[in-house]
Design goal:
The chain is an alpha/beta fold and 193 residues long. The chain has helices at residues 18-27, 66-73, 84-92, 183-191; strands at residues 7-12, 31-36, 50-53, 78-82, 97-113, 127-138, 147-153, 158-163, 168-171. The protein has a nine-stranded mixed sheet, sandwiched between helices.
Length: 193
């Protein structure tokens, strides 16, 4: 029997960083159940309270059941998207993606927290160096009114967001990366919410 209060469902988008996220989840006292994005039944997700959407290659529409998980469970579950996971959240709620042209793979850059009420960043400084591994970002153009930007980089690109009324949030960077400061704190903040 799964203790759904202490077990996080991790949707693995076929990414090499997924198990680094699992390790981070374990470090803060939770268990993780990992399912590949195309190897489960949507109804089986219902048993979990917390869902982490992993990074992954490509774009959200190519990621198995990823978009369907968000559409189905955003109203009732706590969802945290990392990289591709954040991009999928934005798309489900009406956002679009922007190709950077120049990939940000294995690069540390500072991001600024712009929403002091976002609990994901509690006990973190306003400016945090983070590890980035992506070619796409959520576009600032036509940004959905139901979402709120919670962190930006020095070029004003969206580095974190949350839903205005649902327990759904995401980060473009990788909290599990050694390049990210306070990544463990962010994970602990989400899991204890």
């Amino acid at each position: 029997m799964i203790d759904n209060k202490k077990t996080v469902l991790v949707i693995d988008n076929y990414d090499s960083f997924t198990y680094n996220l699992v390790h981070l989840i374990n470090e803060v006292g939770y268990e993780a159940e990992v399912w590949r994005n195309d190897k489960f039944e949507l109804a089986d997700v219902a048993q979990y309270d917390k869902i982490l959407l992993s990074p992954g290659p490509g774009i959200p529409e190519e990621a198995g059941l990823l978009l369907d998980v968000i559409k189905t469970y955003a109203p009732t579950k706590s969802i945290f998207g990392v990289c591709l996971g954040q991009q999928a959240i934005a798309e489900v709620f009406g956002g679009t993606l922007l190709n950077l042209g120049r990939p940000m793979h294995g690069i540390a850059t500072p991001v600024t927290v712009v929403d002091g009420d976002e609990f994901l960043f509690w006990e973190c400084p306003q400016t945090i160096n983070v590890g980035r591994y992506h070619s796409w970002v959520v576009s600032k153009d036509n940004f959905p009114s139901c979402l709120k930007i919670t962190a930006r980089d020095h070029k004003n690109e969206i580095m974190a967001l949350r839903h205005e009324t649902l327990d759904v949030r995401g980060v473009q960077f990788h909290p599990e990366s050694v390049l990210t400061e306070f990544g463990k704190q962010m994970m602990e903040n989400w899991l204890s919410s």
